[in-house]
Amino acid sequence: MPVTTLAGRDLHVDEEGFLTEYDEWDEELAKVLAANIGIDLTDAHMRVIHFLRDDYRATGQTPTLRRCTNAGGFATKELFDLFPKKPAKKMSYIAGLTKPVGCV
Amino acid sequence: MKNLLILGAGTAGTMVANKLRSRLPRSEWKITIVDQDNVHHYQPGYLFIPFGVYKPSEIVKPRARFIPKGVELKLGVIDRVVPEENKVLLEGGVELPYDQLVIATGTTPRPDQTPGLLGPEWRHSIHEFYTYEGTQALAGTLKDWPGGRLVIHITEMPIKCPVAPLEFAFLADDFFKKKGIRDKVEIVYATPLDGAFTRPIAAKTLGGMLEGRGIKLEPDFSIERVDPEAKTIVSYDEREVPFDLLVTIPLNMGADYIARSGLGDDLNYVPVDKHTLQALAWPNIFALGDASDIPASKAGSTAHFAVDVFTENFARHARGEPMEKQFDGHANCFVESGDGRALLLDFNYDTEPLPGTFPFAHLGPLGLLREKRLNHWGKLMFRWVYWNMLLRGRRIPIRTEMSMTGKVRKTAEPSTAAVTSDR
């Protein structure tokens, strides 16, 4: 697994830069990750990010967009406004989780 | 006497019934299979109906014809599974007890899940080809369609047969060329993915094929609604794609009884161990075919390889012993590319579709990820193989586990393309 340095720490990431270790994440790091992809984190963003983190801890999987709507109660439209174009990828990147499973 | 109950007499369920009836002693195991009707559809044939390649009558047969002696086919609508009591309830009060349960009720398109789809334009300028009715209605529209803007659209992944929309695009291009109206047709391919396919090498090849045919790719398109009056599809990020004819792949979901039984995820797919197909929540429930949440193609070939592994494991499992065989997510798909040619994709959980050759007994090696006539004949021949061998549980000459034989993976140094082989 590649290691990268962000915010002065060494982090484990996959080929696309998604964090692979759940416990290496904190809110400070989220701000840095968000800035990397051009997002200025607000409370509205953080509510979604915390849902992703909590759901991952409960299920062992990064929730899909549909699950964020069904279980998290976020409107899909809101997620597209907060994380433009590719919300599923961007949310999981900032939350320090792997991409949700993209099926073939 | 123990009960093995199979829900769904489609591709996976029928194969399980055939393979396990010949393996399990009749004095010990009663096998029952449930479906809501007695019509088995050759679903890969849906793709060809709009272009007049198959007649509708060529892709349906009675389910009962493929259910072996010693297996009871029960027709009824499933109300719910009660896993705490090891029983299944059918509508009308019938109770079916089980010792082991196989869920094989697949996935179905749900046009009602996208606002605006089921309006006055449904089956007129808005079509789908994932149902028997839908594909015939589309054939009717295409026959006299004068041309215009054709938008082929995927709502959300996963979908059954993820290459079918691409095949539809290639076949449509060919169809309009042969009709002499290709210059009057603009074709757009709108997908929620960031390319033509999920995995990079195949996405590049297939994307290049779209481009070469003048088909415009509209990537990262997540649909919010259809505006049937303006004739546009609208994404969550407010892009609008206008159409004269929309061919959409609606949201695919597992059966509703799975949600009622508390057995499904957000799309009613049963969470399972991806190597044994055993439900994570219940050790005596398995989900096969399209009904599970495994990260593999929802396709008949995947169902076939998974059923092979499951049926080999079943006898040991039923004795309470650990399961030995592991499913690798193998899929083997012919992709029609028009003008009598097709590609072959062969891949699994860990290995994406690669170029090279695929060894095939009698027929000779097939070209992987390349347009070849032989692949097209393979695809057409497959209908016979499906009815006569696959469903009946007979061995077909393709290995259950994906093999690296013939596949070519480019290494870090492009000059030394390595041909890997078995071990």
Could you give the topology of this structure?
The complex is a heterodimer of chains A (104) and B (423).
Chain A: E1 3-6, E2 9-12, H1 27-36, H2 43-59, H3 65-70, H4 76-82, H5 87-94
Antiparallel strand pairs in A: 1-2
Chain B: E1 2-7, H1 11-23, E2 29-35, E3 39-41, E4 60-62, E5 71-75, E6 78-82, E7 87-90, E8 95-97, E9 100-103, E10 107-109, E11 126-127, H2 132-144, E12 148-154, H3 164-179, E13 185-190, H4 200-212, E14 216-218, E15 223-227, E16 232-235, E17 240-242, E18 245-249, E19 252-254, H5 256-260, E20 285-287, H6 300-318, E21 331-338, E22 341-347, E23 356-358, E24 366-368, H7 373-390, E25 408-409, E26 418-419
Parallel strand pairs in B: 1-2, 1-9, 2-5, 9-20, 11-18, 12-13, 12-18, 13-14
Antiparallel strand pairs in B: 3-4, 6-7, 7-8, 10-19, 15-16, 16-17, 21-22, 23-24, 25-26
Task: Describe the structure using short key phrases.
heterodimer, A: mainly alpha, 5 helices, B: 423 residues, alpha/beta, five-stranded parallel sheet, 26 strands, 23% helix, globular
Low-confidence stretches of chain A: none
Please give the radius of gyration of chain A in angstroms: 13 Å
Approximate shape of chain B: globular
Number of strands of chain A: 2
User: How do the strands of the widest beta sheet of chain B line up side by side?
Assistant: 5-2-1-9-20
Quaternary structure of the protein = heterodimer
Q: Pairing-aware structural class of the strands and helices of chain B?
A: alpha/beta
Q: Helical residue percent of chain A? A: 40-55%
Q: How many separate helices of chain A?
A: 5
Separation of the first and last Cα atoms of chain A: 24 Å
Number of helices of chain B: 7
Residue stretches of chain B low in confidence (pLDDT < 50, at least 5 long) are 412-423
Sheet having the most strands of chain B? 5 strands, parallel
Name the pair of protein chains with the most residues at their interface, and give those residue counts: A-B, 17 and 23 residues
* Main beta sheet strand tally, sense and closure of chain A: 2 strands, antiparallel
CA-atom Rg of chain B in angstroms: 22 Å
In N-to-C order, the SSE pattern of chain A is EEHHHHH
Helix percentage range of chain B: 10-25%
Indicate the proportion of strand residues of chain A.
5-15%
What value does the average pLDDT of chain B take? Answer: 94
Q: What is the overall silhouette of chain A?
A: globular
